[in-house]
Amino acid sequence: MRHTIYCVLCVLATLALGILAARYVTESWLLAFFESLQTHISVFAILFALIAFVFKRHWYALFLTTAGTVLLVHSMLMLQEYAASSLVASAEAGGGNFRLLSFNVEDSNFENGARIADLVIASKADVVEIFEAGPVFSEMDRITKVYPYRIGCGVMTTDCDSLLLSKRPFQSQLMRSLGSLWDNRFILATIDMDGQPVNFASVHLSKPYFDAFHQIELGLLAPALNDVKGPLILAGDFNASITAPDMRDFLAATGLRHAFPEPATWPITLGAYGISIDHVFARPPLRLVSVTQIRDAMGSNHFGLMTELSVPRTGGPKGAAVD
Fold this sequence. Notes:
The chain is of the alpha+beta class and 323 residues long.
């Protein structure tokens, strides 16, 4: 019986580690889901191997423990590689502090639309980015009393999927599709934040295990953002962790950086122990002061994020969003 349990645990750990290790020899969208879970899967593989060693003292269980530790350490290094050097206070950045609320509210979550609208109105955020925004469409009249400027939900598009709300008027605005799977899930707006034009970008990507669509969308998004001049902040539902290879390529290509550690946003059942698939990225000179999880998911399958950002007064160009 002890030998059987040992074998079962070793097989499970071997399969888990083998799937993770495949990323180092090949690139395939079939691995995308597991690549985002490398930290979690590594931990479970190590636990299986250690338990197996308790049942039978054998070198293979120790080998699996070592391999799992290597993959775990690499995942932690990847989580930090593109992190901002430090989170700074507004006084250090020499500019004003502002707030961004970003939240995938889930398109079938209509029973909580009023509660989500209450959150938006009471958030004191300067800019709000909502994904799968259908549940708040019926609340738009009272939302627009606080956020009179918007893109989405009837403005620049007939649908209500991606939505960007602002208390300040737009200097420029753009809404477009990335790839052929979904329409109008990329928004870019330049907003004057107390004298400093800031570019706010919003994106909602397809799931990375839907063929190569996720990689294609990132490939279109990167050059669009590289054409943006001035401070830039990008928030969205990327449906992937930054440990995924195409996410790492995207961050390397754009120079965008994130807070570390990133708050977990999915699945909500794991709370703080989930993974970060909703991200907030910034490009210097814009600084991330803090990125925090909104603990009440309000019926969504994602947690929302509240971001404090600092915008230095550089005296730069008056916000040409895209060449």
